[in-house]
Amino acid sequence: MTMEGWILAGQSNMEGSAPLDDPATDRVDDTRVMSFTSAGEWEVAREPLHRTWESYTPVHSILHRRNPHSGAEGITDAEMAERERRTQFRGAGLGLAFGKARADATGGRVALVPAAHGGTSLNQWMPGSEGEERSSPRTLYGSLLDRVARARTRPDFVLRGVLWYQGESDANPSDSPTYARRWADWIAAVRDDLDAPDLEVLAVQIGRFVGTVSAPSQTERDWDRVREAQRLVAQRTEGVRCTSAIDLGLCDDVHVDASGSTRLGIRLATMVDAPEAGPDVSRVEVSTPRIDGYVRLRVVTTGVTGAWTAGPLPGFRLTDAEGQGIPGIDVVDAHRDPRRPSDIEILCTPFPREPREFHVSYGLGYDPVCRAVDDRDLPLPTFGSQPVRGVDHLR
Questions:
Q1: How far is CA 339 from CA 226, 312, 342, 344, 349, in A?
Q2: CA pair distance 151, 147, nearest whole angstrom
């Protein structure tokens, strides 16, 4: 029987940053799920999946030493690895839950190939980064290629896809505008270099952030740009699917907690064989004429299983064409459409009579409150400005 192989790539939320002693952290071994460890050995998967301090490829040691807070000055790689092994208290992520959910779905075995590293940018993941050769194990890309090549020497290993959770490090004015192009290039490159043109890519939109930043090094607009780039690349690229972590709990200012990581892993597994990629916005239109001066809009969605969550669905914003708020016009409430429960109805304060464009967005900003999930626990991804259709009928 073959093992379905999945690469785990990205930065800290893929590496796993939830506390290992969290009661929600999975400590149950499952022999159906194997891991190709950082040291290059096969074992039954267990947390932490990523033990970068024992990596046989040098890139992880190089990156640890570059971290100004690593305290690695004056000690050997072996001493640094031993210290990390003894002191690590974080490391629970989404990979184990994903593997178990896939094993449940297929009735077979799953192989995880952890390759992520915290704090890394998309440029660091590109082929030939740092001026190194494309296949150099001194780079994240070359290390990924090497790890997959070694995993493939196992006769029952069959590569299926890659899980991708990265983008927080690119949420800045320099990198966010080009994220979509660069990520699409990375997907094409990894498919080509792994000789896997049908390699599936399951991605996570970057989630919430409640920390402090110093503008202009990072802005909410850049955070939104990266999220939207991830949604659109998945929408436009065959074999790429994207879910969201926007509604999940955090264990610090940016990292998904243990229970949220479990839900996220299951979400990714749910999307693998689904006939549709998962929820997304299709269009926004006027639902009904003015009622007592108020306006009802309908967010038409695709890929929804069943109905949206009952109750209020916050997170929607009404803006002009430039994404700026419109004085005197607000979203009053949003909930699933009682006539079409796979769509969402938004109640807005009255629109002005003069001609102008109106747009709706969802989940903008560092820390929005978003609750829209369907019957499979797949969330509506955050989305940028969508024009409202049918406004002329209100005049």
A1: 34, 16, 9, 10, 21
A2: 6
* Per-domain residue ranges of the chain: 3-272, 280-394
269, 98 Cβ separation under 8 angstroms: yes
Query: Under a CB-based contact definition with an 8 Å cutoff, are residues 99 and 112 in contact?
Result: yes
What are 256-295's pLDDT values in tens digits? Answer: 999 999 999 999 999 999 888 899 999 999 987 666 889 9
Whose CA is closest to 255, among 27, 20, 8? 20
Torsion of CA 73, 79, 83, 86, to 10 degrees: 180
pLDDT of residue 336: 97
111, 282 contact by CB (below 8 A)? no
The CATH number of the domain covering residues in 3-272: 3.40.50.1110
Mean pLDDT calculated for residue range 21-47: 95
d(CA 124, CA 137): 13
What's residue 274's pLDDT? 86
Could you tell me the strand order of the sheet in which 33-36 lies? 42-44, 33-36, 109-114, 3-10, 157-165, 200-205, 240-244
> What band does 393 get if pLDDT is binned at 50, 70 and 90?
low
Residue 214's pLDDT is what?
A: 65
Fold of 280-394: Immunoglobulin-like (2.60.40)
User: What are the C-alpha distances in Å from 331 to residues 9, 208, 279, 324, 335?
Assistant: 38, 21, 22, 14, 11
Q: For residues 357 and 382, what is the distance between their CA atoms, to the nearest angstrom?
A: 21
pLDDT in tens, 217-244: 678 999 999 999 999 999 999 999 999 9
Instruction: Tell me the C-alpha distance between 250 and 208, whole Å.
Output: 8
| pTM for this prediction | 0.94
Average pLDDT, stretch 78-85? 70
Contact 209, 223 (CB under 8 A): yes
Q: What is the DSSP string of 82-142?
A: HHHHHH--EEE-SHHHHHHHHHHHHSSEEEEEE---TT--HHHHSTTGGG--TT-TTSHHH
Whether pLDDT at 216 is above 80: no
- Could you give the 3-state DSSP secondary structure of residue 192? helix
